[in-house]
């Protein structure tokens, strides 16, 4: 059917009107949620009665959503070469022991203990699992538990030289000198080639008050390993204790030339200045502070703080000495006892001097 001109114009007009109406409807739909959201976030006015009885509008702020606190994630276990093997064979005791010792080397003591616990819970647990867990307890200042585990390990395998040496070192740190020396001498007999066992024996001799024997033991280490800074610093302390200050300084100078920023070297020189020379106290303070900054174990940090506290005491800075020695004492507490006993005495000296 053909449309005349009037019909065509009418159809065009109706189409235009349809488009206009459609546009208005769409606009209303779009504006609706926007206006609703504005109503929701606007302040709510509620009437409250004042003393005169009139209704007073009071604005109340809308509730502000708060974000739930995010828990701090636990430190991830450090990676080791044994991780994939442990995933494949989680109940392999030897793999657990190997990874446990890898964690010990990385200072990840809690993760080490978890692996040793698994190994110990399996049938035919190796003695090394108890020895490793004992070492983890030692560095965590859980020394009674460490002694128990080391005792089990040595009962199962008396030839474990590392376990016997650690047993002796722990006893020495705890001030039990005679059994410590017995254990360390046995460890040296079992593994004469390991310089560290000789150093621990020399350290125990020095702590026991036998500076001459300690000097000989440190010298024995240096004949095998001339670059041992622990032996040079230890022998310096043994020589200083016997009054050979020039020889002591020579050892400290050698140690500084080898590893100038090692905390053991820094603390050794600081202690020598503060205790034996009574001079260069500003330099001793700087050295002790750097040793503290580089320390990685609480007991060592306590030793370095002890040195710094004694430097402050020598400088008659008694308040700083007391605060520093108190911090040292806190770090040296093992099962309720300060194991570095000189800290307690020097703290008392500082308090009396103040």
Summarize the structure.
By secondary structure, the chain is mainly alpha-helical. The protein is built from 17 helices and four strands.
Question: Main sheet?
Answer: 2 strands, antiparallel
Strand percent estimate: under 5%
The residue ranges in which pLDDT falls below 50 over 5 or more consecutive positions are 1-14, 16-22, 24-72
Task: Compute the CA-based radius of gyration.
Answer: 37 Å
Helix content: over 70%
Task: Work out the count of structural domains.
Answer: 3
Order of H and E elements: HEEHHHHHHHHHHHHHHHEEH
Can you count the helices?
Answer: 17
Q: In angstroms, what separates the terminal alpha carbons?
A: 119 Å
Mean pLDDT: 85
Largest sheet, spatial ordering of strands: 1-2
Task: Summarize the structure in words.
By secondary structure, this protein is mainly alpha-helical. It folds into three domains: 78-157, Tetratricopeptide repeat domain (Serine Threonine Protein Phosphatase 5, Tetratricopeptide repeat, Alpha Horseshoe), CATH 1.25.40.10; 159-260, Alpha Horseshoe (Serine Threonine Protein Phosphatase 5, Tetratricopeptide repeat); 262-354, Serine Threonine Protein Phosphatase 5, Tetratricopeptide repeat, CATH 1.25.40. The chain has 17 helices and four strands. A hairpin with a 5-residue loop joins strand 1 and strand 2 (55-60). Helix 11 runs antiparallel to helix 12 (245-258) and helix 12 packs antiparallel against helix 13 (263-277). The radius of gyration is 37 Å and the shape is globular.
């Amino acid at each position: 059917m053909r449309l005349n001109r009037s019909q065509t114009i009418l159809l065009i007009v109706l189409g235009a009107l349809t488009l206009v109406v459609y546009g208005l409807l769409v606009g209303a739909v779009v504006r609706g949620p926007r206006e609703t959201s504005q109503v929701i976030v606007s302040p709510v006015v509620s009437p409250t009665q004042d003393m005169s009885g009139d209704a007073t509008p009071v604005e109340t702020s809308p509730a502000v959503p708060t974000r739930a606190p995010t828990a701090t994630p636990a430190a991830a276990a450090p990676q080791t070469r044994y991780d994939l093997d442990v995933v494949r064979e989680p109940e392999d005791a030897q793999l657990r022991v190997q990874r446990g010792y890898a964690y010990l080397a990385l200072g990840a003591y809690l993760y080490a203990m978890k692996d040793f616990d698994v190994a110990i819970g399996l049938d035919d647990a190796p003695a090394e699992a108890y020895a490793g867990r004992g070492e983890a307890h030692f560095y965590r200042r859980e020394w009674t538990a460490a002694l128990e585990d080391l005792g089990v390990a040595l009962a199962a395998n008396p030839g474990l030289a590392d376990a016997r040496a650690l047993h002796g070192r722990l006893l020495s740190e705890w001030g039990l000198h005679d059994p410590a020396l017995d254990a360390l001498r046995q460890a040296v007999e079992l593994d004469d080639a390991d310089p560290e066992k000789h150093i621990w024996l020399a350290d125990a001799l020095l702590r026991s008050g036998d500076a001459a024997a300690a000097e000989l033991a440190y010298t024995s280490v240096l004949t095998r390993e001339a670059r041992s800074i622990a032996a040079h610093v230890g022998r310096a302390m043994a020589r200083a204790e016997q009054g050979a200050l020039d020889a002591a300084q020579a050892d400290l100078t050698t140690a500084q030339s080898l590893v100038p920023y090692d905390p053991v070297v820094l603390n050794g020189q600081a202690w020598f200045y503060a205790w034996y020379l009574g001079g260069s106290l500003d330099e001793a303070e700087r050295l002790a502070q750097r040793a503290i900054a580089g320390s990685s174990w609480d007991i060592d940090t306590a030793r370095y703080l002890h040195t710094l506290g004694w430097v402050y005491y020598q400088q008659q800075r008694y308040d700083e000495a007391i605060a520093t020695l108190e911090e040292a004492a806190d770090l040296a507490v093992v099962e309720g006892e300060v194991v570095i006993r000189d800290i307690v005495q020097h703290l008392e000296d500082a308090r009396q001097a103040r």
